[in-house]
Specification:
By secondary structure, the protein is mainly beta. The chain contains three helices and 54 strands.
Amino acid sequence: MSWPAGPVRDQVRRFGVAAGALLLAALIGAPPVAAAPVTLYVALTPTVTSPGGGSCASPDYNTIQAAVTAAASGDTVHICAGTYALTRTVTFYKTLTFVGDGAATTIIDGGGTVQLFVGPFQSAAFEDLTFENGESHLTPSGGAIAVSRGSVTVTNSTFSGNSAYLRGGAIEAGSVTVTNSTFSGNTAPGDRAGAIFAYGSVTVTNSTFSGNAAAEGGAIDAYDSVTVTNSTFSGNSVDFSGGAIDASGSVTVTNSTFSGNSAPTGGAILANGGATLTGTILAQPSATDNCAGTVVDGGGNFSTDASCGFTQSTSHTSVSLASLALGSLASNGGPTQTIALEPGSVAIDAVACSPNVTTDQRGQPRPDVASESLCDAGAYESAYPPPPPPVYALSITKGVSASEAGPFVPSISVATGSTVWYQITVTNVGNRPVADVTVGDTATSGALPSACPAAPTVLGVGGTYGCTYSATAAAGSTTNRAFVDYMASSVAYAEATVTGTGGSPTPTLSDGIAAGVNKGSSGFGTASVILPGPGYVTYLVRVDPSFAGQHLAIYTEAKGGAWTYTTGRIVAADGSVHYYRKIDAWTGFWAKLDGSSSHGRIAAVR
């Protein structure tokens, strides 16, 4: 007797199981037992013309739809390796499990024109499959899978290039559970959820969403809650809100990485029902805010902006992309692509390990060393050691030379009046960029010499600032100090000393007073002058030319008053100083240079 082929054979198979169950139930007086589920095999070849043997080598059916039609609720349809180019949508009205031989080898392709699977209000599981190029042109949602308010479970599968006009470029369902799967390049341009739309909740574990796009909810949009663990969201985008996730309910994210997602509001997450984030990295290269909605800080989070409002001491806002040291999305081991933490990332060993998250997205252990108590933030557990504690430090040197080419040393002796050259060098010797940098020199009253370029306000790690300027050597010993202030409370300084020889170590000042404005160098007036009325007088001071370029202080006195510092003047090359001003009453003038003073002169008005 030959075994019936196709659906008849499957009914006979099922009947045999059921008959045995009924006989056993009759013998022991128990209620009848339902027929056990069976697995139906689908393969493109060989062509099924006679009863199959229930394997990929001897399949039961050559099309997925034929197996679905023959299956009973609870059965499994095993889709053997191959690319199944659908010309019609696979429809089902029963609870089924679809299993492939691996996402790399079992591919369901809609060619950009066919919606792949539709099972209204049904529950379905999909394992080890790839769904690509599905397109829901007849129904507006679920380019790869649409079950309306049914449930979908996805494991070890890939969804790529699927599209729905309205909702769920890849999946539309009542609830969705995803594990070890990848969603890339899926779109829903007309409404929401480039990858997954759910009327209820979505749970995602160890999965990657990249390059998905929609009007709202670039990767996931749910009317209820979204729970994400050990997952990566990279480069998802929307026109309005929720670059990666948009949820009407609550969002819970643990040990996950969000990088380069974008939206006008909520570049990574929009949580209308509030979000709880723990051990998660949110990194954007632009000004897009990472979070929108109320955020509860579970600790160990890193965000490149302040939009998430973290409150825990172990969480960090406005972190630079450079300090996060994120790699690109790549195959780093495990079933899905991830974003690695490069050496020196501040996210390494930055989170208290959770007893509920013992591996990373790739399946590598957390922590990477069993004896450690700290784990990495994000979906990737790095084997690199944590970065050293931050050190913010600048060093400064100042040297002097008789030649512009150097060498520059702490002190020299030169002939009085000769030109000397000073060199200032500031270096960041810490391991973090230093901000609020100010460089100055006492030789120019605390400012930078005019010959020096403006100092940067931020100096990166290993960065330097340099300046070389000239001055004239005065008689005796002169010490000038260069300094650098940074980060509001730190300062470093260095000194250089020049000793001028061959000139008078103590300046001798001669002075005089003359009527009118005298800018020449001839004549130094008299000890006093009387004007017929208010007018200008010129106070003239002469000193040895070796003191040229130095600062001379001028004091004035009203009759019967105290001497008051009035102004300073630079000694000219010929050793002269001219100071003119208008007076309308008795005024005394007096000068001081390097500890020596003049006799003092008087001007009066009749």
